[in-house]
Design a protein that fits this description.
The protein is built from 14 helices and no strands. With 325 residues, the chain is an all-alpha fold. It has a domain of 115 residues. Helix 9 runs antiparallel to helix 10 and helix 12 runs antiparallel to helix 13. The N and C termini lie far apart (68 Å).
Length: 325
């Protein structure tokens, strides 16, 4: 049975059929994914409400600890948390950069950090064992032992970097969504502030209106509203918003809000200026992408468009020439 399995795995036809089947399955899943998304905004807002309850409970527990009236109970441990605590992964795998990336990617709470540390330990081990078994037992591809050992080490290194690459991709996608909707959110916030609303009500109103354009931005504004209500310092809520988003435009707005809170400066003028700057920045990025299109289209035009154009132009002339001769 093992020999038959090894023979099938080393057969190039079987491998190509397997890769083709995986590609077809991924294509079908990609096309069918929008049909099963459901109410994404509703789910994210529900998670924001849960996060608001956690903030409320945390602040109440902090006040209770200050008054020495309540003792907090430990949360029940799960399988991943047991492994993380047993091997003390937070001491040698947990970094401040990784924690910041988790926050910027939208993964909050201790469970997200535990899951990241767990997969950061398991992924390199799994890829190392898989590459070792495949190259030294199933198929060596005609490579020497030194080359195969190098490939195995490379697979382990890829496993170490895979969780960080995943976080980086999720963060980039999330920031792109927020960056596109942030100028409109600033305009809505400016309207709310100039109409006489407080900043908490402005954040709450904007979070409900901007969700159709960017669910992550609506979620962050809702969390900022909750922190403004429950944190002891409002400045901390603005700083947390800037850290969670990781956008320079959001950081500038948070700085303007902090200065308005501290010095009493008018907020409408600052928001109007920042909204215009964000809109100009978005337009500059669109123009930059448009300017980069001609060099990117040069090679496809040479390989695909020009040969077809020459065929269309030259074929009638060649037909007439051959007919005459």
């Amino acid at each position: 049975m093992l020999a038959l399995l090894i023979e099938k795995l080393t057969d190039m036809t079987v491998l190509l059929a397997l890769v083709g089947g995986v590609a077809v399955a991924v294509t079908i899943m990609t096309l069918a994914a929008p049909l099963f998304e459901g109410n994404v905004l509703g789910k994210r807002m529900k998670s924001v409400a849960t996060e608001r309850d956690k903030i409320r409970a945390r602040e109440r527990d902090r006040l209770a600890r200050q008054n020495e009236r309540v003792s907090l109970r430990q949360e029940p441990k799960v399988f991943m948390r047991d492994i993380v605590e047993r091997f003390k992964l937070s001491d040698w795998l947990g970094t401040e950069n990784a924690k910041k990336q988790l926050t910027m990617a939208g993964f909050r709470g201790q469970q997200a950090e535990v899951g990241f540390l767990f997969f950061r330990l398991i992924t390199p081990i799994a890829l190392f064992l898989f590459a070792l078994f495949y190259l030294f037992v199933i198929n060596s591809f005609g490579q020497t032992s030194i080359v195969r050992v190098g490939i195995v080490i490379g697979a382990a290194y890829l496993g170490i970097k895979a969780p960080e690459i995943y976080l980086s991709n999720v963060t980039t996608k999330r920031q792109h969504s927020m960056r596109r909707a942030f100028p409109d959110a600033l305009d809505l916030m400016l309207i709310c502030v100039e109409s006489g609303m407080s900043i908490e009500l402005a954040f709450r109103k904007v979070s409900t209106e901007i969700g159709s354009q960017s669910v992550p931005l609506a979620e962050e504004f809702s969390l900022c509203t909750a922190e403004l209500s429950y944190l002891s310092e409002r400045r901390q809520a603005y700083e947390n918003l800037a850290i969670r988003t990781g956008l320079e435009s959001v950081k500038a707005v948070c700085t303007a809000l902090i200065q308005a809170e501290r010095y009493g400066t008018p907020l409408g003028t600052a928001l109007r200026t920042l909204a215009q700057e964000s809109r100009d920045q978005r337009m500059n990025e669109a123009e930059k992408k448009a300017a980069a299109l001609p060099p990117k289209l040069t090679v496809p035009m040479i390989l695909f468009f020009l040969p077809v154009l020459f065929v269309v132009i030259m074929t009638p002339a060649l037909i007439k020439a051959f007919a005459n001769f």
